[in-house]
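User: Please predict the structure of the protein below. I'd like the answer in structure-token form so I can feed it into my own downstream comparison script.

Assistant: Understood. Taking the following sequence of 795 residues as input:
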Amino acid sequence: MKIITTLIMLFILLSFSAGAFAQAQEEREGANTSPGAADQIRGVIRDFLGKPVSGASMVLRASDETILGQTKSDADGHFVFTSVKPGIYAVLAEKPGFQASTSIVTVEAGSIAAATLTMAAREARELSVEAALVRARNGLSPTTGGSVYHFDQDDIQNLPEGANTTFNQMLLQAPGVVNDSYKAFHIRGDEGNVQYRINGVMIPEGITTGFGPIFDTRFFNRVDLETGGLPAQFGYRTAGVVDIETKEGEQGGSVEVYGGSHNTVKPSFELGGSKGNITYYLNGSFLSDDLGIENPTSKSNAIHDHTNQETGFGYISFLLNSTTKFSLMFGSYDGSFQIPNLGGQTPDPFGQGFLSPLGIAGYDSASVNNRQYETNRFGIAALQSSLGQDFDYQVAFVSRLNTAHFAPDVTGDLAFYGVASDIHRSAISNDLQADGSYRLNDAHTVRLGFFGQDENISSDNTSTVFPLDSNGNVNGSPYQIVDNNPKNGNVLWGVYLQDEWKPVDKLTVNYGLRYDELHSFTKGDQLSPRIGLVYKATPETTLHAAYARYFTPPQTESVSTKTIALFANTPNEPEVTQSSPVTPERSHYFDLGVMQKVSPEMNIGLDSYYKIVRNMTDEAQFGPALIFSDLSYDKGYIYGVELTGNYKAGNFSTYANFAYNICRATNIVAGEWSWPQDQLAYMSNHWIYLDHDQMYTASAGVIYNLSGTVLTADATFGSGLRMGFANLYKMPNNVQVNFGAKRKFQLLDFGPFEGRIAVVNVTDNINEIRDSGGGVFAPQYGPRIGFYAGLTKLF
């Protein structure tokens, strides 16, 4: 593998060196290979302020309504249709937030047909906010009024590893996103509480346990991370809304081979196009490496940490008529993980007599063979249409299957922990979502919708344990405890109604109500008012403020009192045996901020927030298996400030984010088993930091196009998560800097290619993310320096 990686990197470096010559050769040959002038329609699309509209869906129709081509406008609003015969055609443009636009074009032999389209924003606020913050990463959401951070295709491709960047690593470049172990991340101090949407459709959450990526960044056309005081249309998971717009109908595709350190090999492909009224997109990838989970040591290579992961995504849409589209989407993920080991550990660490009943004198901790297997499937069927000029709607059905299976090394786990748990959790969710938007008049846009979910949960646990006597010593042979807890018919539903009101030109008020009801392991309901204001003080300055009442259901998996009782007088019995049920989290959220356009090239933003919480949710680990369940505190609060900015001029762009966050809580009222008695007593009358709290977080990046070679670097900083007795202490600071370079080139008669090299953790910092306490049975370290290279064939 090392020889293959070296050859790939040498080939990429040679390709970079030859890039200028190859591009020049391509330009010389262009006159002979480009299509003739008579078979093209070229055009540009702009808004009413003359700004280019990027990412608009362009459709070419013949006079008999046959669709002859589909494409998208580029960053400068340009588009082109090729292989067009002489005749009369209609060019249609559509983009969310804008009214559709049409241009009639006549193609004559021997000439280039030109088309210029203008799109009007459906809502005046969208036009003014987007105009003020054009091409900015940071801004205010034109649909919610909250803070939003954008990642488009260029942003993703300009990360050092490009589309091979994992989903959580991409989000760490946004403000207020904190890195954690096992591929987890936290937004504005919350534990989980993240909502995912694909083309406006919310994806069922399923179970939270898993090491694999939620999504492959390869199929993203654009990602918006929306935070703050959200309007009534967003419920349940509200720390952050990850709104994904998929690629669709992009003609052509690519095949890539990527690899490098830790025996990494990652082939992938993309394919897209359109035919008649049908648009499609497919992608898939396979990953094999030896760093599937964070290394429990500070060394470069982990022991027993191999992973194989397969991902796939597909999209197909049918344009039923000029205003109605039916879409099908599916996603698939399968992952297998070895659980990494710490060498040199002593079995039976407390001398309880684990080894004798097993008939062994010792056990090498480096050879323990714990594994985890994960599966994630989802499918979406969505119908989008309009009734007249003023009412738009989408109805979607979503189904998701999510499983996690922890398979223990029974002898090894018994030797070290006295318990070996085979745990299988699965969730099957079926959702129905309907959303509508009615433009009542120039001052009011009314939105309303419904969400309903039916979920079936299976939690099957078979644990092999030793019986213990009153002194804590083994007094018999190991036996099995079977603890299966299915919970079918879990129902969650909600409705909302909101109005976007523009009383004067500079002010937009978004107010509304939503009602939610939960019937699961626990029950609850809430009526939640929301209000947000966006004030355009000057063309360069936008202020916003919001209040939101939130209702957050707990995860459907849990550890019950019944389960704990089964482990009485075994090594897996917790010190505290009480486990009250976790109830929904309820909170008041306040948000205040400002966006400032300093110059045409530079934008900055400042946002502050304060969250008051009852039944604050957190997670804990029951036993040595890496499976987690909810707990909750009686009261909590989160507050913080985020500063963000970006600059772009010519071939150079840069961005930087800084966040300060405090997350504290007191008095555990559910899942009490997760803490020792002395710490539980301390927390009953003290405010503590939650273990995922990180006071300071920062990220930054630089992109420079040097004569066709794109040089890129990004960095993240964290002041450290919490640790120790009642989380009174913190981990050391962590810093990671990554570097990358890429270049497109023409390779002889083989067509266009793109080469990429990347270095992860350039400074080779030792970053310990978690220590061995707080319910985690081994430390976790970030990756040491790694070298990677990739080659992509474009077609």
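That's the full token string. The chain has two domains: 2-123, 127-794.
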